[in-house]
Amino acid sequence: MSKPDVLVIDDDESITSTVSNYLASKGYSVTVANDSEDALELLSTRRFAIVLSDIYIDRLTGLDILRHAQQQAAGTPVILMTARGSVRTTVEAETGGAFDYLAKPFDLKDLLAVIQRAELSRQAQPEPEAEEDLEQFGGMIGFSAPMVEVYKRIARSARSDDAVLILGESGVGKELVAKAIHDHSARSSKPFVAVDSGAVSGSLFESEVFGALRGSFTGADRDRPGIIETARGGTLFFDEVGEVPLEFQAKLLRFLQEKEYRPLGAGAPRKADVRVIAATNRNLRQMVQEGKFREDLLYRLNVLLIEVPPLRERRSDIPFLVKRILSEVCESSGKSVWFEAAAEQALLQHDWPGNVRQLRNVIRRLVTMEPPGSLSRQALDRQLEDDGRRAPEEDEPVELDAVERQQILRVLDQAGGNKTRAAEMLGIQRRTLYKKLARIERDRGAETAGDDRR
Known about the structure:
- By secondary structure, the protein is of the alpha/beta class.
- The chain has four domains: 5-124, Response regulator (Rossmann fold); 145-309, P-loop containing nucleotide triphosphate hydrolases (Rossmann fold); 314-390, Orthogonal Bundle (Helicase, Ruva Protein, domain 3); 402-453, Arc Repressor Mutant, subunit A (Orthogonal Bundle).
- It is built from 19 helices and 16 strands.
- Strands 2-1-3-4-5 form a five-stranded parallel beta sheet, sandwiched between helices. A five-stranded parallel beta sheet has the order 7-10-13-6-14. Strands 8-9 form a two-stranded antiparallel ribbon.
- α3 (62-72) links the parallel β3 and β4 (78-82).
């Protein structure tokens, strides 16, 4: 197979001579331009498979060459090189879609490796496919038998107003299932309100759910509606219901049985008008045996049951998920990347303990950190190794240093206090974030106690 045409642009003739002679010795057809005017004319009149350009040429820069090359033939790999790299030029090269960015002086073997990778990316780039309707029930994707069963249960549950219990591992999309039930139910025009049970401290759970009247406790300077009132007419979703404090479970049971609740400080109960859906990745029956979850509450929640399969049990859906996630991330980042065949096979074979959430985060990091073009098996392996280091075992003790505490609190602030969003930004599971936040609170309490003793 003949080697592709390469255009080499640099105002330093010694550079263009050295590079062109080296690439020609490796079988490439090389054309040289020593000023931007010649380069733009060549790009306008000929098609080059790969463009190698210096950043600082003359009145124009390599960034101008990059933009012109992309306008003439979108997807052309443009490799930029410079001896005066800066944060600004690097960022502009990345955002402009440069294939790679080389710092001078470089080893010719390193240059060849980048050229070969660009060559492979052109050969491997998949042809655009006709758009498929991959949306099923609010963004869930999958055509496997286990997912078809989930879709059927969603449709049947949507026709009812009974409580639904959704079971599944972390990251399988339990909230998507709950939202799909709501969106296809008679309550779809009313609010869907989710409460992350693990994110609410035990002492605040009652006021969070039932609400509180002014003066009902210290700091209650006004009436505060609970999530039952906020969701009136719609659906109330208890995520991670296994984390509901044991002392509150009896009151939650009474609410489910009587369809009424009493805000803190209220003299009389109020009627509720909500449909309740709950989800958990915990084994509730085992928790009942251990005395950590009320058996009668389990029965009251488990009227309609939906079990969401882990990704490893529906591997045939992985290619569709990858296609959709990759398309979304590439569109938002302005990058064009795709997986090499070996990487696609590795995606299919991986067990994905974090399920769809983990798959999405790995693809996001790959698109962000890797240059445009094909994503290799090695790049994927690096991200999966990073994932293994990111996720501690659920029962592993949480130790935090000052830097990590600051990072967690900063990200939580950026997420507006949304712990689910903060966990995604940090690349950790929500349960892990809750443990770290609990440790931060304990450390703060210990520091305060120490100050008091002094």
